[in-house]
Amino acid sequence: MASTTHTAPETHTGVKLPVLEREKLILSGRSYHWITERICGVVENRQPFLWWLLFIPSALIAMIGVGGGLTYLVSTGVGVWGMSNRVFWGFDITNFVFWIGIGHAGTLISAVLFLTRQNWRTSINRAAEAMTIFAVICAGIFPAFHVGRVWFAWFLAPVPNANAIWQNFKSPLLWDVFAVSTYFTISLIFWYLGMVPDLATIRDRCKPGLRKILYGIFSLGWRGGNRQWSHYEMAYLLLASLSTPLVLSVHSVVSFDFATSVVPGWHTTIFPPYFVAGAIFGGFAMVLTIMIPARFIYGLQDLITMKHIDNMAKIILLTGTIVGYAYLMELFVAFYSGAIYEMDAFKFRIAGPYWWAYAAMMSCNVLSPQVFWFKACRENLWVIMIVAMCVNVGMWFERFVIICTTLSRMWLPGDWKTYSPSGVEMMTFVGTIGLFLALFMLFLRFLPCINIAEVKWTLLESDPHFDDIHDHPDHGVTKEAAYQHELAQGKI
Amino acid sequence: MSTTRKRVYGYLAEFKSASALYKAAEKVRDSGFKKWDCYSPYPIHGLDGAMGMKRSILPWFVFFGGMTGTATAFALAYTTQVVIYPTIVQAKPANIFTVPAFFPIMFELTILFSGFTTLFGLLALIQLPRLNHPLFASRQFHRATDDGFFIAIEARDPKFSPNATRDMLSEIGGANIELVEEED
Fold first, then answer.
1. How does DSSP classify residue A374?
2. Which ipTM score applies to this complex?
3. What is the pTM of this model?
4. Tens digit of pLDDT for each residue in A52-97?
5. Domain presence at residue A375
6. Is position A389 within any domain?
7. Of B39, B105, B118, the CB nearest to A238
8. B89 vs A249: CB contact, 8 Å cut-off?
9. Cα distance from A368 to chain B (closest Cα, Å)?
10. Considering its fold, how many domains does chain B have in total?
């Protein structure tokens, strides 16, 4: 906890102010070896009963929902997804935007928090990045299959189709294809590259055999020499700097699908920032939803501490409030614009037949995170889990409200219809939840779920000048002098 | 007993902490060695300076990779939309004024190409993947990815000598000094 331990270095003139000690990121003074043992132990030891209890049902749900649902869809026709209705996008694009949004927290944690030097990210970034990959896989299912004849999905790729017609590069839907596929590829590279040194750690602990060969291949022969680390760190920095604008662009482009159309309730400039904030908000909730149980199952409390959870709760509070602001600003702009169609669209959302969806969205996304103003709520894991679940539900309803209420009252009154998804659609959505959980369970089983190398790097003794500070507790003067010396010699 | 000839890869010495490794690295650097490396379980910041290494040149690769991406996206969109197959959709122009509509894809391909260049550029620079390395024959090197700090000086370095190098490593604080050999 914060306590005054030493005073500011001598390099400052004037009044010396006490320096507050930072809260430690890794508790109980764990050693490098303990960290390796604990994180590799998750992969090497027998999985706890709870793992099977979660994996088998999720895998079954995924097989029936996604495998069965999609087989039925493809073999029968898109009619089983209710595509005869004017609100044909309804459920599938809601699910697509929902899953894509979930992924964004992973990139935010791994890239944006890396660039802003938030070292607490190291304990959660690997799992959050895995979540990104799996969420984008779940997201991709919906647009790929709702095109109708999925065997023509290659029409989306930039090659002339059978009639030698090229894609419309001016269309936000094609932008979306490029944005989402780039996002998936870059996230995968970032995730994998970040994992290479940790895979090498597992490889070096394996007994000779198939496991060692496989981990050996995937760790690329990593040796951990500084001549490798130096380029590796540069690559990591570059990928973080590439991912940061990318993650902002992806959900902006997703929002362009709506915002560039001339439809009341969609045609607003607030959409890109509002979607991005919502995505981060929903994604952090999902990180908490899966990390809090995982932390207990594998005894990772010293690595994922209450401080990490506290920080994430604060981000949920911040982004939830931004999302709330966007909801209110949408209403205000509809009113202030004086456009009757715009106003009617929002009246329909709030008081029409979908009022319950709007109410669920408002209460889950705007009201429920407000409890995080109180420290006691940020320290109670039950409260955090309940709020995170509310946010997961609320963010799904947000997309449902945006997409379905608008589509069910388009320009032609003859089109007006109240929407409900078909059974196969619902089955597929539930299937993607199963798929997401099953993939995450397999990730926990086979890959290092916490970034071993980076967590070691956050320990105090990882500093190359730690012994100097430790042997001469002179407020870092030696360290400062050594730094100045190196600077003068041009070594830095 | 194997009858294959062994070739000396070099000396491997262990150091007790990141600080010890850092100080030793400065001394090895000042002794004029070139073919050597420091091994640690995590990246040690400042070790580049202590080893006398230059900043990575990867950003240059990535810059040109990214520019290739921008150019590819522009060429693809412009050629297909304006030159060979102008399609008028939603009354949007099919001439030079339509270029702003290509910006999202130009941006995405810039990122995509940069990402691939980062990955493959990195692999080229660190000379991976490879299936084996002489150091993996060492009995202690597996700890470099756990909690060990090592310096390896290669025999192909011109300043390497079987006795003097071992003495130097021991002088600068190296423990468990091991002669690593590879099968020829």
1. S
2. 0.94
3. 0.90
4. 999 999 999 999 999 999 999 999 988 888 776 677 778 888 999 9
5. no
6. no
7. B118
8. no
9. 35
10. 2
